[in-house]
């Protein structure tokens, strides 16, 4: 006789040609962590921001569209890609640590008093890690379910938001990040590629040697 728990396999869609299976555990929006590397002038700036995150978007990428006009129709190909800007909101604190950290990063990008800019991007760019966690805490070390490595980051915009007598909300700073590239890592730290193998492994796509390669 089947156990009572076997009924849980019926609480999902039965795949064509297969048997019902239990639903997969979803990643939860509130189980995340954002790490900043080389942000501001010191390591304390990075730690302060990590503790004060309110919410954070995940990366969004878009490919240009290449249109090839052919006989009676059109064929579409993916062109160059663009990583969209990424929004992060942080709570400002009464001690001024968050605004100090944000100000330090802005000052690296441009000395507003002296009106002197950095000589190269490496002088001010930082890296950002967006990690989805499994809920562990305390003596149970959090496990990383997904990790995004954003490289070549700088603050495109820092919005210190508004103050209002008619609310009890905390003061926040809205940050807009522009970055050069983003690498998605699976659980265990393996980079995602076309076949699920790590970057540089055998999962990369190969093409036929014939000159009549299909588009």
Features:
215 residues, mainly beta, two-stranded antiparallel ribbon, 11 strands, 10% helix, extended
How much is the radius of gyration in Å? 23 Å
Characterize the main sheet: 7 strands, antiparallel
User: How does the overall form come out from the CA principal axes?
Assistant: extended
The helix tally amounts to 2
Strand-residue fraction? Answer: 35-45%
Class based on secondary structure composition and strand pairing? mainly beta
Topology pattern, helix = H, strand = E: EHEEEEHEEEEEE
Give the distance, in angstroms, between the N- and C-terminal Cα atoms: 54 Å
General description of the model:
Strands 1, 2, 5, 8, 9, 10 and 11 form a 7-stranded antiparallel sheet that branches. Strands 3-4 form a two-stranded antiparallel sheet. A two-stranded antiparallel ribbon has the order 6-7. Helix 1 (43-51) crosses helix 2 (97-109). The model is unreliable at 197-211 (pLDDT under 50). 10% of the residues lie in helices and 36% in strands. It is built from 2 helices and 11 strands. With 215 residues, the protein is mostly beta strands.
């Amino acid at each position: 006789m089947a156990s009572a728990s076997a009924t849980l396999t019926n609480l999902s869609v039965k795949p064509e040609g297969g048997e019902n299976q239990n639903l997969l555990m979803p990643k939860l929006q509130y189980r995340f962590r954002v790490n900043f590397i080389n942000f501001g002038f010191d390591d304390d700036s990075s730690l302060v921001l990590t503790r004060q995150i309110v919410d954070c978007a995940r990366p969004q990428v878009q490919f240009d569209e290449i249109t090839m006009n052919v006989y009676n129709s059109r064929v579409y190909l993916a062109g160059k890609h663009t990583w969209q800007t990424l929004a992060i909101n942080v709570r400002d604190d009464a001690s001024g640590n968050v605004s100090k950290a944000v100000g330090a990063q802005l000052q690296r990008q441009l000395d507003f008093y002296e009106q002197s800019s950095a000589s190269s991007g490496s002088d001010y760019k930082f890296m950002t890690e967006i990690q989805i966690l499994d809920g562990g805490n305390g003596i149970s070390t959090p496990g990383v379910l997904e990790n995004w490595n954003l490289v070549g980051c700088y603050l495109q915009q820092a919005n210190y938001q508004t103050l209002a007598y008619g609310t009890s909300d905390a003061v926040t700073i809205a940050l807009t990040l522009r970055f050069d590239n983003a690498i998605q890592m699976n659980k265990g730290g393996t980079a995602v590629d076309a076949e699920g193998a790590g970057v540089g492994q055998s999962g990369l796509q190969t093409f036929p040697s014939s000159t009549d390669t299909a588009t």
